[in-house]
Amino acid sequence: MKTTLVGEDVVVLSKKTRSTRRLQGRMTIVLFLLPALALFLIFLVYPIFQSVYYSLFNWKGFGPAVDFVGLDNFKRILTDQIFLKSVGHGLLIVVLSLSIQLPLALALALMMGRSLRGRAFFRTIFFMPYILSEVITGIMWMILYNPNPNRGFVNAILTLIPGIKAIPWLGNTSTVLMAIFIVLTWKFFGFYMLLYLAGLQNIPPEVEEAALIDGVNNRQMITHITIPLIGSTIRTSVYLSVLGSLQVFALVWIMTKGGPVNASEVMSTYMYRFSFVRFQLGYGSAVAIVMLLISLVFSLAYRRLVRQTDYLN
Amino acid sequence: MSVNYSYRSRTLKKNLPRIFQYIILSVAVVIVIIPIVMLIFGALKTRGEFMTRPYTLPIPPNWENFARVLKIPSFWSMLLNSFLVMLTTTSGVIIICSMAAFALSRLKFRGQDLIFNFLTLGLMFPITIAILPVYLMVRQIGLTDNLWGVILIQTSFQLSIGIVILCGFFKSVPSELQDAAYIDGCNAFGFFWRILLPLSRPALAAVASLTMVASWNDLLVPLVLLNSESLWTLPLGTMQFQGQYGVNLALIAAFVILSAVPAVIFYLFAERQIVSGLTAGAIKG
Amino acid sequence: MKKYSLVLFLVGILLVSGVLTVLAAEAPVTITWWHIEIVENQIALWQGLADKYMAAHPNVTIEITGYENENFKTKLTTVMQSGAPPDLFQSWGGGVMNEYAKAGLLLDITAYLDKDGWRDTFAPGALGVYSFEGKNYGVPRDMGMVGFWYNKELFAKAGINNPPATWTELLADVQKLKDANITPIALGEGDKWPGAFWWEYLATRIAGQAGFTEAYSRKGSFTDAPFIQAGEKLQELVALKPFQSGFLGATWGVDEPTLMGNGEAAMDLMGQWAPGAFNDSSTDRKGLGDKLGWFPFPMVEGGAGGSADALGGGNGFAVGKNAPPEAVDFLKYISSVDSQVAQAKIGLSLPVVAGAETGVTDPMLKLVQQGTAAAKYFQLYYDQAMPPAVGSVVNDSVQGLFAGTLTPEQAAQAIEDSAAQEIK
Fold first, then answer.
1. Checking CA distances to A196, which of A38, B37, C310, C395 falls within 20 to 30 Å?
2. DSSP readout, C153-187?
3. Are residues A25 and A141 in the same domain?
4. Does the ipTM surpass 0.90?
């Protein structure tokens, strides 16, 4: 008897809570979501729509946009040598990052392992460049890359080797992209290393011990056990690296402004120049749309792939 | 017998590579540190010395460059502006993201997934791509040359990552806790404010660290928005200073180092939060 | 009660009179001033003038922001876009300034100039650069021409006794310098406009005034023969590899004057502001002293231009549309004879105000001044004479010639396309 009463009481109680929850539910939900949605709509969504509109015009930014050109801006983008170059440079940076930066970070993370003494010290040092702003990093390396061996550290070291002459790293069309990539690696490898370390932490030690007992050597351990187990971390790092490489701006702008002669031009500097230096705002809007599409396509493709792989796992 | 053998080789294997590991890691440390050290050396030289022997040990160290930078009044106003923008942006992000994440992860309503996906679209629309459209928007509202314009933009573009991290964390809070709170007579807001938030300190610290770093180091938004020198933030001011005094490499080096000091101090104090924030954000994203 | 109301009444009177006094006193005025000086004693000179003015006018605050050249151009464009120009700012006059005037962003100071004969203190040609359709929007402080600054000692070392008078001689001298292991030319082509000087001078020497006027008035074209030849001549020079290594990424602000000031390069085709920059960038801050010489751009054999034709321009300040009257008054102050003499002494300006010529003591700057005055045809730098869009195409195309990525025909065509679109 008592049980039934309690049961009924509970039912009545939860009915009351559920309906009150629903009442305050709607109001609460709206209130809680409102600020985020408002900011998002005003500062992200609306500008995108606006720039789709402006991209159809030839517009100097003064007064209203009146010179309708339809898809001309987009045609121009796809045939502009310099834009194509900037996409190429972006892709090159992505490829270099995936083949050099990430493996380097992974190797160092594996080396730091689980029980290396002084781990905290190494971690602090390696991560520091990530904290420094791109402005600071850019100016610092500009000084270090000075073509005169009396003033530039890199060349000072280089000319110590007999027979090697000083290289104008940022002034030569053939070396500038490599020079910038070195700075990017210096700045970001610590971040990826930390990412991998966090992923490695998640591998239960029992798995490794079991493998050791089974007689696995180091190399087999790494390739067959460790790396597959941090697969999702690696996938995340690839995603971040590609997106990051496509967006790099301040570092390049400060060191070379995309020069010399567009040899280090990337999509973001290209857009910045047409938007804020030349003030061709219709064209700049079109470039922004193209960049957004590229980023979108990549993100969606990644989500598809990741969902599938992780789902299958 | 075979067990003993593999045990010994295991320890040998562990010790020999250990030394190699230390050597390689130490080389890496040197490569990372050397540029910064060289810059410090350079800053401690006089203008003329930098043009001839910048990378030798500065003995005796010449502090005039540092003194000169510290005497520039705009250096301090830039520091203050960066600080104000960072504080306001971070507070805004924490409050707005936690509210939105709460609604998206602890409450049930139709269209939840849709709104979640919508709000996290921002991850693939970074400010570098969006700057022109956003600038045009801000110009229409009349917030150019205004720190609030910078704050609002920075806040809006940090929302996605904040929501992703906080949703992830909030989801992991057991629902029994929430039910118990309701039975005790708490409403949604009460649960949010008195139970969930205090519980979520690590996640909130992570989001805060992410936002603070992003805001402090931001060049693009201040560059495009701020015209008056009195409103410049530190990265913008550093860039302009380098343009103006670029010939005096030693002075520039000093300026750059001094402008890095706040970030480094913050990093050393809050390293763990920053690291966990960035890795949490990355893994969840 | 009566006591208290009397006290209250007296206090009230005091308050009211106090408020009225404060209101009657001159309301505080702030003037924003943007300049592009990066040489330390020049920055100090402007600040000093502002300080003196502020001391004499306590209600006026002058906020000075100094920018590097390229940052300034970008920042000014942005701020013009938002419709809130600074009160006083660096201007080179010509087509760029005209665009701002057309858009209503500048203050018409014609009336100010007509008062008290302020107009007559300026050299008319120089003042004209800052006027548009008969109205004045700014005043000049400096007018000169571009020429070769050279290191006499390095020339002597290479066995060059006299500066070159023809283009062929110039190329030969470059070779002599190379043979003596001296970097012949310092060039900051990263900024693009220093290299544009070379091509613009060649065009001026080959096309002459007639040629440029033809093309600019749209009767002719920038793809006419003289402009292509200018590109070909430039290629002859580039083929000799006469510039410092990494010149394509080098800047005017840092690299060019450092090389010249420290005797690491032999010559530099640059304007009248060069010596000040050379001195500031040298290790001992003293520069080359009397080792610095100057010679005009050589004749180009077969060219239609005169040997005294000058490419050049000057510097001045334009007035933004929101500027208070105090800003124009301050402008008058810094255009005074004394100010101009002080500017001349540190190589900041070649004076344009009558009576200030005495401030020019440097014999080399005197040469520049004389050359400017004697020029029969004075060509303003292309990127200031023509609308900004065309100017930037000129600079970009010429950079392509230096980098070898564009042929003379392609460069000329790019300029012509832009001119056709912008100049109507």
1. B37
2. HHHHHTT--S--SBHHHHHHHHHHHHHTT---B--
3. no
4. no
